[in-house]
Amino acid sequence: MTHKITLIPGDGIGPEVAESARRCLEATGVKIEWEEVLAGQDAKEKTGELLPVNVLESIKRNKVALKGPIITPIGEGFRSVNVALRQALDLYACVRPAKSYLGVKSYYKDIDLVVIRENSEDLYAGIEFEEGSEEAKRLILEIEKDSKKKIRADSGISIKPISRFASERIVRFAFEYAIKAGRKKVTAVHKANIMKFTDGLFLKTARQVAQDYAAKINFEEVIVDNMAMQLVQKPHNYDVLVLPNLYGDIISDLCAGLVGGLGVAPGANIGSSMAVFEAVHGSAPKYKGLNKINPTAMILSGVLMLKHIGEEKAAMKLENATREVIAEGKSVTYDLKPSPRDPTAVGTQQMADAIIKRIK
Ligand code: NAD
After folding, report:
1. Those residues with Cβ within 8 angstroms of residue 340's Cβ, 6 or more apart along the chain or in another chain
2. Which residue CA neighbors atom 22 of ligand 1 most closely?
3. Is the CB of 296 within 6 Å of ligand 1?
4. Ligand 1: distance of its center to the CA of 71 in Å?
5. CB–CB of 69/11 below 8 Å?
6. Best label site of 152, 287, 314, 344, fewest CB within 10 Å?
7. Is 343 helix (H, G, I), strand (E, B) or coil?
């Protein structure tokens, strides 16, 4: 069977890591017909748009995409293409496994965590009011009238919507994921003691959903600041974490740090009928075109993609080959060497070549 998959190379180091992942995926023997489409800076130059409609159409048609990182210029008036893509396709669940690989420098061993982040609402909903704007002034007056609380007149305001619907959907996803992946425990992470009506709703909903799975999967709840400390002190006590959008973003980077950093952290954005696979890292513009950056995170995102399309055996082959190359420590990029200036470090494509050679 041939799988038709959308390929978005992305910006900065995106095209390099996307190319190495594409070659590794093809080397597993799985038949893939790629539909390459542009989003981000390249698309803007060619079409005038950062997220052209043909990108969304391609993913809707093929149901699966592999995506390189895309730059989000700070304060330039448009929202992140990455966030826009997730929202336009309702890819509500962001799945970020954090797994230790022998040979990756880290303070910890044998970490095997999965962070499941709600992707559609919370402070990422993009509902913001600029300091000094008429809308912000009106909103401040309304809020002060209704809540009797004072807000400084020179405030910017971001809105944090958390719904029962999206909370139930993501927590159910986390439990279903835990069952499928043979996991034992789901931990809901929140700040319900302070944000009673948003995080409080998330937590209340999580407790209700957990009851449906009580026979199979353990459930616990942890406040997000405590979670940050617990993960640093006792990461092995945790299994699957489920979090609202912002905490999920921060805690998944923390978990990437536990296993050696962004170079080895894969991810997936999953909806009810579509999925986009991408590394946790961004487009690292200063490394663009240098053939220097670590392709592992993107290759492991490809492993997640193979599992998603039912190619379990190929996924295992590619993950094992990647694990072996990293453990051997010879044909690896600078960040996986004992010192970043190690002259024996190889380039992005050469590391991919070494992985391809190992695929059995
Ligand atoms: P970044 O992840 O691009 O890079 C931060 C640093 O991490 C790099 O300078 C590098 O030292 C290291 N790093 C990242 N990827 C690596 C790899 N594969 N191998 C080795 N080291 C690696 O984060 P940033 O600098 O904050 O963001 C750059 C741009 O990427 C921004 O515009 C940001 O918005 C965007 N971004 C995009 C996505 C996405 O497309 N999903 C995700 C995060 C950031």
Report:
1. 334
2. 263
3. no
4. 9
5. yes
6. 152
7. coil
Give the sign of the dihedral formed by CA 262, CA 14, CA 103, CA 236: positive
Backbone angles phi, psi at 86, to 5 degrees: -65, -40
The verdict on the CB of residue 71 being under 6 Å from ligand 1 is: yes
How far apart (Å, rounded) are the C-alpha atoms in residues 64 and 246?
25
215-267 pLDDT, tens digit per residue, is 999 999 999 999 999 999 999 999 999 999 999 999 999 999 999 989 999 99
Q: Is 249 in the pocket of ligand 1 (CB under 6 A)?
A: no
- String of DSSP letters for 126-158: --EE-TT-HHHHHHHHHHHHHH-----TT--EE
- This prediction has a pTM of 0.93
Ligand 1 contact, 70 CB (< 6 A): yes
Per-residue three-class SS string for 210-244: HHHCCCCCEEEEEEHHHHHHHHHHCHHHCCEEEEC
Would you state the structure tokens that stand for residue 237, as one six-digit string?
Answer: 């006590």
Q: Are 308 and 315 in contact (CB under 8 A)?
A: no
Could you tell me which residues come within 8 angstroms of residue 345 by beta carbon, excluding any fewer than 6 positions away? 332, 333, 334, 336, 337
Please tell me the predicted confidence (pLDDT) of residue 72: 82
Residue of 11, 82, 262, 333 best suited for mutating to test ligand 1, as the one with most atoms within 8 Å of CB: 262
